[in-house]
Each structure stands twice: as C-alpha cells, then as structure tokens.
Design a protein that fits this description.
BirA Bifunctional Protein, domain 2, three-stranded antiparallel sheet, 12 helices, alpha+beta, 20% strand, 18 strands, 430 residues, eight-stranded mixed sheet, elongated, RNA-binding, Helix Hairpins
RNA sequence: GGAUCGGUGGCCGAGUGGUCGAAGGCGCACGCCUGGAAAGUGUGUAGGCGGGAGACCGUCUCCAGGGUUCGAAUCCCUGUCGAUCCGCCA
C-alpha cells in the first residue's frame, strides 16, 4: 500500500523507483484516478453539508411553530438524500479503484540495493569462514551413516505425503537443541523478547503482512477459514496491528520459535530430496517494530543477530543483498544469509532479513505517536529468520560429518545435549 | 455444540432519538506548587478524508454492512469479533 500524498508530491521519483522493478510508470494513471476521486468527494460532501444544515434547522422551525418552513425543510432534506447517496457511491467507487491500484503495486526498492534481473545479480556484502576441506567426499545430510536412521522420509510419506520428515533419536534431539540454542542467544545476548505465538491466524492478519491477496497459493487454510502461518513474521508483526503506540514503546524486538507451513506450490521438483524444502518446518523468527529513521540500522542489527547464530555454530556463510529483480514484493531491502553445505557443494539460503518500511504498517494501520507531539506516524517493520531450524540442522550435520559416518557437533550445542559432543556412525549421541 | 451478555476516543468507562465527537477517569503534554522530586493542583489533549497559502472550514468515524427517521452512539435486521456459563476435549 502506497501513500497517495507521496506520489502526488513526487510522481517522478515514484515511477523511477517502480521502474527498477521493471514496471511501467504508474503515476499519471494513479493521479488521474486520485483527481476524479477528490472531485467526487468534494461534490458529495458539499451536498451533505447542505442537507445537514437544513436538518438542523428543521428542529428550530418546529420549535417556533413555523409549520410551513418545517415542511419545506423536510422536503428539501428528503430530496437531497438521493443525490447524496449517488455522489457518495461514485466517490467510494473512485476511492476503491485507487486503493486497489495502490495495494496491488509492490513496495519501492531501497535506494542502496543493486539493480538486477534475478538472483544472479545479487551482491555479496559479507562472508565468514573458510570453505571447509574434506579428506573424503562429503555427502548430503540424509546420506550420512549416523543420520540415516534418525531422518525417516518414508514413514513421513506414509503419514503425510512427500515433503515431510520424521526425525527420531539423536537427530530429533539435535533439532530441538538448535531451537533452544537460538532462542537463548536471541533473548540473552541480542535483547529480543521471547514470544510463543499461535500458528493459526485470521485471514485479516495474512493481509496485514502481505501474504494475501496475492500469495494465498503458498499457504494452507483450514476448513473454517484460519490460515496456517508460513512464518511467524505474520503473528509477530501483527502484534501491532491496529495500534497507535507511544514512541517510547519503540523499538520493539520479538523472537519466536514456531512451526511454519508452506504449500511450496511453485517449487515442484525442486529440492525434493532431503529436508531442505518441507511443507512443515520449524523456524526461529525475529521481528522488529521501529521508527522509520531507525530502520536501516535495525536491518543491519537483525542481520548480525542471524549471522551470530551461524558463527557460534562454526558455520561458513555469506550474506548477499538482493537485487531489485529478486526482491520480494512487500520489501524494500533484503539480506539473504547463505550457509555452506558441503554435501551440495553450494551456499544455500538459511535466513532472509527484510526491511518492509511502512508497507505492512499501512496495511495493518500500525502507528506511533511522536514524543514531541504531532500526528501519528506509521511504524516501520522488519523481519528475519534467526534462523531456519531444519536448514540449520542440515548445515550442522553436513559440516560436522566425518569419514566414518559420524558427526562432530558444534561446541555451542554441547550444553544443550547434556555434554554429548558427537553422533556415532550408528546414530547414537555420545 | 447450547445459552446469555457485550463491542464507545491512546486506554478504562458514562451515555436509550436532536443541544453528542461524545461526561468522568487513566495516560500524555505544558504550567503552578517544591531546595529537588513525589503527592497535590490548573490548562490542554481523537483519527481519516476533502478544501485552503494559512488562520481555519467542511465531511466521515461510537465493530461492519443494511434499514427506520427530517434527524441515530442511541431503535430494527444481518454479519463479525469478544466475554461468561453449560457440554465436550488435550
């Protein structure tokens, strides 16, 4: 959702920003609708003002006992009614046209992100760790001897179908340990507020964060209308839906560990082996609610929170800033953090940290009252994974694998495994 | 699932047909009081949209949508959300 006044003030800048997304100029048609809309509003309100004035005088006429005037005014108000209704309908129609148009357009990309067509044009901005050298050919996570028994895709397929997994034993334990580790890091070292949220939400919330109306195909809905969240961004961000906050309340920084559900409708055939892409997975998600002037710094801060998790786990990663062609519709700037997976011999996305500006805040009507007074302003929202647990599990397993099929586990996780340090080739924790 | 009661400003809460954008309180802002603070005290304090250079003016908003009426926060209908009790259940 865009601010019509910003477009009015500087249509050229608006078109220039959209053109970076490969879109045709929109401002002239937007402004034409806006002008028509304002003319209709003015007409409707003028008619309404006349009717209101007459209605007010009706009572006075009655009080004076001026029956002739009373009847005349009554008739006048009655006549105006139809005209007002018609003008109002026309004004509403123009307003709806404008809203639909503004809602349907993607967010404006941030000035400092690169132009580009697709993911190949993303730009690396940070890299940590060396590409590990193995004295043997590293395998994918599900091929590691010590992992095979604890990562059961066949039983999961029986239970639920493809793109599900049943974890058991030491793998399930490691999976749980990762979630605990991440939450502790974020709450105790990064200052985020731990939150446990619903995973079923009202449709309205999916509009608030922008999953709807365009991307309903990607998510699941229950028979009675709830949506299963594709990410805790939905619940955490919508905490401030409809609120007017005191400025002193900001910044607000949340973290939650939740299940996430995605239909993966558009990714048939991609990443079908292993647990890289599942219909149901767990993720630790961070969301910040900040003043607009703080959003760029907050974006960097959140990126570092996610990076810190990977560093503590001894993983190699790189951070890229998405180019205009790869940027999500609702976002102004996104950092993807990609972890090195030896089994795939590639970097794969493990976290995505995004700055939405006021795009979501406008949809949610989430504002704050400036401390120095003045009109309420829209907040800025940011979200980022900190990080995807299933993918992190993959990374830990593939990077820790040994030639004998065992897995050495990162020191940071040892306390969460009651001192256990490795998975044996037979799949035992020891 | 059954029954009942509700939805009013940033928050709480009065208000059952016009004088209501709406008492009172909280919160917040500024002032007084104070050595300084607390307490006390005074004043102010909704949002959206439109017009206007501006002062300011108009219009809408008491969950949403319809209806009754010259006139609706108030009456009627529908929807929606919430609470409580009962039943069922982890």
């Amino acid at each position: 959702m865009h601010d019509i006044r910003t477009i009015r003030d500087n249509p050229a800048a608006f078109d220039a920003a959209l053109s970076r997304r490969g879109l045709e100029p929109q401002s002239s048609s937007i402004l034409a609708i806006d002008e028509a809309r304002r003319a209709k509003i003015l007409a409707a309100e003028t008619a309404q003002a006349e009717a209101n004035k007459a209605a007010k005088e009706v009572g006075a006429a009655k009080g004076r006992g001026d029956d002739a005037e009373f009847e005349r005014l009554r008739a006048l108000v009655g006549e105006k009614k139809a005209e007002i209704a018609r003008l109002n309908d026309e004004a509403k129609a123009e307003d709806a046209r404008l809203t639909d148009l503004l809602m349907g357009l993607p967010n404006l990309p941030h000035d400092d992100i690169p132009d580009g067509a697709d993911e190949n044009d993303n730009v690396e901005i940070h890299q940590h760790g060396a590409i590990p050298n193995f004295a043997f050919d590293p395998v994918e996570h599900f091929e590691i001897a010590g992992v095979k028994d604890g990562m059961d895709f066949e039983t999961a397929a029986k239970l639920s179908g493809s793109r599900f997994v049943l974890l058991s034993g030491s793998v399930a334990r490691l999976h749980r340990a990762l979630a605990q580790f991440m939450l502790d890091m974020h709450t105790e070292e990064h200052g985020l507020t731990e939150t446990a949220t619903p995973v079923l939400v009202r449709e309205e919330m999916m509009y608030g964060t922008g999953q709807l109306p365009k991307f309903g195909e990607d998510s699941y809905q229950t028979t009675n209308g709830w949506w299963l969240i594709p990410t805790a961004e939905v619940t955490l961000t919508n905490i401030v839906n409809g609120l007017t906050l005191e400025e002193s309340y900001l910044p607000r920084r949340y973290v939650a560990h939740t299940l996430c559900f995605r239909s993966e409708a558009g990714s048939a055939g991609r990443d079908t082996s292993g647990m890289l892409r599942q219909h149901q997975f767990e993720k630790v998600e961070m969301v910040s609610i900040v003043r607009p002037e703080d959003s760029a710094a907050e974006h960097q801060r959140m990126t570092e929170c996610a990076q810190n998790i990977l560093e503590k786990l001894g993983l190699t990663y790189r951070t890229v800033v998405l180019c205009t062609g790869d940027l999500g519709a609702g976002m102004r700037k996104t950092h993807d953090i990609e972890v090195w997976l030896p089994g795939q011999n590639a970097y794969r996305e493990i976290s995505s940290v995004s700055l939405a500006g006021d795009y979501q805040a406008r949809r949610m009507n989430a504002r704050y009252k400036p401390a120095e007074g003045g009109k309420p302003q829209f907040v800025n929202t940011l979200n980022g994974s900190g990080v995807a647990i299933g993918r992190c599990l993959i990374a830990v397993l593939e990077n820790g694998q040994q030639e004998d099929g065992s897995v050495d586990l990162p020191t940071a996780l040892h306390p969460y495994l009651r001192g256990k340090t490795r998975i044996t080739p037979a799949g035992e924790l020891e």
